[in-house]
Design goal:
Elements (H helix, E strand, L loop, with lengths): L1 E11 L4 E2 L5 E7 L14 E7 L2 H10 L5 E10 L8 E11 L9 E6 L2 E6 L5 E5 L4 E5 L5 H11 L5
Parallel strand pairs: 4-6
Antiparallel strand pairs: 1-3, 1-5, 2-3, 3-4, 5-6, 7-8, 8-9, 9-10
């Protein structure tokens, strides 16, 4: 195995996961600086990163999301003769850029206690049902959901 101290810039492939004994692990997608010199179908390099430092582990588990651009510094281990990803034990972490904020889909189901609502992208009106599927009514907008639920509970004696 080859080891060397280095710094890598790359994107977080998936939300970091907690590991044993207070560690955190994630995959970092690293592209070479001379990407234009590579073939279009050349694969990205995936480096499996691990942190044992409590401060870095806390940041990874609480502040890092998929798609964030990071600079990680540490000891890189390149296994010889295997198909394993290179591994990097992180000593330092810097967030260079955050990933895109996820965009809501055309339809989102949400729950308000014993009630379910359907938020649609193309209208302000919000269909409201009980958790058991009984029709409650159509709120004019998201701000009117609580009023509609309150009326429904008064009429039905608090039964959702």
């Amino acid at each position: 195995m080859d080891t060397k101290h280095c710094a890598l810039d790359g994107w977080v492939d998936a939300i970091p996961a907690p590991g044993p004994r207070g560690t955190a692990t994630f995959d970092l997608v690293v592209r070479p600086d001379d990407i234009d010199a590579l073939a279009d179908d050349a694969p990205d390099t995936v480096v499996t990163c691990t942190s044992e430092d409590p401060r870095i582990t806390h940041e990874l588990l609480n502040g890092i999301q998929s798609g964030d651009l990071l600079r990680v510094t540490g000891t890189l281990v390149q296994p010889k003769g295997t198909v394993e990803n290179p591994r990097l034990k992180i000593d330092a972490l810097e967030v260079l850029d955050t990933g895109l904020i996820p965009v809501l889909r055309d339809m989102v189901l949400d729950r308000y206690g014993d009630y379910c609502v359907i938020l649609l992208a193309d209208t302000d009106a919000v269909p409201v049902f009980t958790a058991l599927g009984q029709w409650v009514g159509l709120a004019d907008n998201p701000d009117a959901i609580a009023t509609l639920i309150d009326i429904h509970e008064r009429v039905n004696g608090g039964d959702a």
